[in-house]
Q: What sequence folds into this?
């Protein structure tokens, strides 16, 4: 090839590089193109990938050096990290060395080979025309290297690794979900991480470790490392945790929406939850808890579909919370009907309301359920809610007895008083009270307990009431000839 041809070729390469600049700069754009061109599937612009790619780009730029990604199964999380991220990073850091691990030897070989095929694909060569060729002497299923000494070493979790170093270590699902209850396997994986894998980083301070996995047990590798971090015994981990069902409004979805309606429809997720709440919370919501130390159990939960039509006493309790931090508890309102010794939870409302929003929600409960009395927990600034609600009820000409109250004892001791009631099947839930049941199952390890706390307040309130019987009957509705309702 003469000088003129070399110049033309170089100009063509530079033009290709210019046209593909967005894919060089953005992992998400690269992922989108490879997905459509190589997998021959329509890309649906997943917000999940945007969040994952954003975190991985920070890993590539050394802004994050220890990253945990917890996400539901069957969402191509392995593809995103072990294939798309690794092959994209070749362009930014040509001499990078990867060690990538899985719990399965067959998966190890398959994902490594698929990443290699992506690297050799025409689409990849179009995006990165200066792609170095692979070395013939190191071109195997689990270890392949290009001529710039970029290398991809795939290894089965628990194997001994000798003679191989890495700039990036990726740990993808180190434990098979079927082995979740094996204390021996979980301990082995934790020790393997510290004694074998961690030592393979060429630079222990500046190079990165990424763990991507669904949670399988409260005492899995993620919990082990986070616990060491909390004790100051290990480095800080950045965490990207995406539950299958949103527990509050997020940037890309509303509360109770699925992570992806095509792959994990909400009907499927709710069915999984009904069958096994513990497994659902762990593998889908990424919030495992200790079965052995659980204080409330799924088999204690009783349900009702229709509001009991016989007599009962209705009360409402409110636990205000004005802090709107993501880690703080919500304000909670509960209305329940007591029939003899049984409680039917008619409605539970909880959210991070401001004071006026909270007052509106309380009035909604009063107008809908007509409780005998409403109790408001009042400590210091919370007392203003009691005064404000009384004023608002007067303005709207709504009558309801409103009392403020305070409680003694620590919160955990108060909540434990619910245990004999649940064991005796005296508390009935509606089937959509997912948040309440989650907090009960996670108690006392859970992050939040606002709904459980207001539930025990309701029971305390009821036990302090005079033993009078007030009859409540649900109205029977008929219609006249013009279809106007007639309440009887």
A:
């Amino acid at each position: 090839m003469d000088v003129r041809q070399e110049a033309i070729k170089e100009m063509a390469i530079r033009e290709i590089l210019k046209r593909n600049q967005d894919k060089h700069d953005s992992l998400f754009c690269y992922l989108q193109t490879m997905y459509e061109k190589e997998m021959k599937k329509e890309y649906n612009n997943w917000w999940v990938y945007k969040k994952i790619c954003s975190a991985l780009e920070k890993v590539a730029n050394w802004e994050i050096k220890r990253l945990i990604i917890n996400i539901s199964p069957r969402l191509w999380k392995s593809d995103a990290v072990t294939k798309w991220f690794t092959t994209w990073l070749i362009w930014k850091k040509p001499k990078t060395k990867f060690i990538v691990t899985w719990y399965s030897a067959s998966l190890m070989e398959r994902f490594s080979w698929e990443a290699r095929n992506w690297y050799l694909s025409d689409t990849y060569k179009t995006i990165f025309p200066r792609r170095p060729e692979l070395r013939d002497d190191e071109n195997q299923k689990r270890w392949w290297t290009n001529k710039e000494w970029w290398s991809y070493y795939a290894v089965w979790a628990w194997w001994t690794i000798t003679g191989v170093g890495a700039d990036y270590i990726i740990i993808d699902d180190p434990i098979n979900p079927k082995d979740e209850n094996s204390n021996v396997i979980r301990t082995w994986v934790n020790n393997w991480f510290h004694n074998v894998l961690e030592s393979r980083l060429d630079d222990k301070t500046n190079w990165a470790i990424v763990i991507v996995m669904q949670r399988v047990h409260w005492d899995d590798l993620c919990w082990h490392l986070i616990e060491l971090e909390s004790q100051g015994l290990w480095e800080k981990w950045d965490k990207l945790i995406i539950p299958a069902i949103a527990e509050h409004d997020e940037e890309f979805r509303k509360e109770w929406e699925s992570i992806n309606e095509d792959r994990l429809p909400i009907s499927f997720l709710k069915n999984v939850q009904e069958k096994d709440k513990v497994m659902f919370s762990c593998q889908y919501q990424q919030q495992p808890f200790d079965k052995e130390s659980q204080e409330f159990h799924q088999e204690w939960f009783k349900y009702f579909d229709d509001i009991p039509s016989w007599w009962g006493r209705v009360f409402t309790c409110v636990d205000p919370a004005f802090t709107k931090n993501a880690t703080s508890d919500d304000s909670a309102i509960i209305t329940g009907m007591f029939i003899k010794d049984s409680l039917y939870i008619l409605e539970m409302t909880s959210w991070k309301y401001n004071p006026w929003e909270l007052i509106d929600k309380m009035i909604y409960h009063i107008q809908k359920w007509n409780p005998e009395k409403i109790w408001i927990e009042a400590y210091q600034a919370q007392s203003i809610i009691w005064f404000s609600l009384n004023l608002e009820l007067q303005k709207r000409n709504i009558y309801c007895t409103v009392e403020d109250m305070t409680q003694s004892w620590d919160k955990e001791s108060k909540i434990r008083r619910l245990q004999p009631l649940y064991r005796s099947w005296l508390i009935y839930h509606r089937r959509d009270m997912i948040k309440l049941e989650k907090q009960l199952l996670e108690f006392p390890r859970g992050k939040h307990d606002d709904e459980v706390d207001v539930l025990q307040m309701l029971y305390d309130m009821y036990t302090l009431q005079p033993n009078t019987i007030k009859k409540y009957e649900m109205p029977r509705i008929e219609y006249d000839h013009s279809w106007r309702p007639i309440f009887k």
User: Anything to note?
Assistant: The longest strand covers residues 342-351. The two ends are 97 Å apart (CA to CA).
